Amino acid sequence: MDVDEVGLVVAVFAAVGVGVGIAGVAATGWAEAAFATEAGGDAGRFGPVFVAQLYLSVTAAALVGAPVLAGTIGLLVGSRSYRVGAAAATCGLGSGAGALLYGLVVVALVVATQGNAATQAYGFTDALGPVVGVAVGSALVGSIAGALGSWAG
Questions:
Q1: Cα(136)–Cα(134) distance, integer angstroms
Q2: Ramachandran sector of residue 36 (left: φ over 0; alpha: ψ -120 to 50; beta: rest)
Q3: What sections of 33-42 are H helices per DSSP?
């Protein structure tokens, strides 16, 4: 296992997490404005429900990207290794830790920017279970992709 390459994988996940988090903030802010702030009629009654669903949907969509990123990075980093086991360990550990950081960054950005209409939206601790689950899945994907990259490279 190469500690520098584990760090590289984690750093890429963190950088992408910041970008995805910012995109999530833009999407949820837009949704909040459209469904609650600028809406008329019965928006006061149903707006917060839609806003909460949109916050959840945006976060879930962002988390789905972590295993995809793990596969891509695992294949690339793994292809630089001559040993399949080392590539699997490096990419698995890096992807697991990176996906955890990615998920925490995305959730922190989205939760920190929830507006007044997001009273029914999830809180930071509510998302920890799914974030950990995504990290475990990403570690598995990263490990397999790293091994495949090493084997094919």
A1: 5
A2: alpha
A3: none
Q: Report the C-alpha gap between 153 and 37 in whole angstroms.
A: 53
pTM, full prediction? 0.88
AA letter at 52: A
Q: Amino acid identity, residue 147? A: A
Q: What's the confidence (pLDDT) of residue 43? A: 55
Domain ranges of the chain: 3-152
| Cβ neighbours of residue 141 closer than 8 Å, sequence gap 6 or more | 67, 70, 71, 74, 95
Closest CA to 105 of 27, 31, 11: 11
Burial (CB count within 10 angstroms: exposed 0-12, middle 13-18, buried 19+), residue 43: middle
The first and second tokens of residue 127, run together, are 């998302």
DSSP codes, 106-145 = HHHHHHHT--TT-TTS--TGGGHHHHHHHHHHHHHHHHHH
Quick: pLDDT tens for 63-99.
Answer: 999 999 999 999 999 998 889 999 999 999 999 999 9
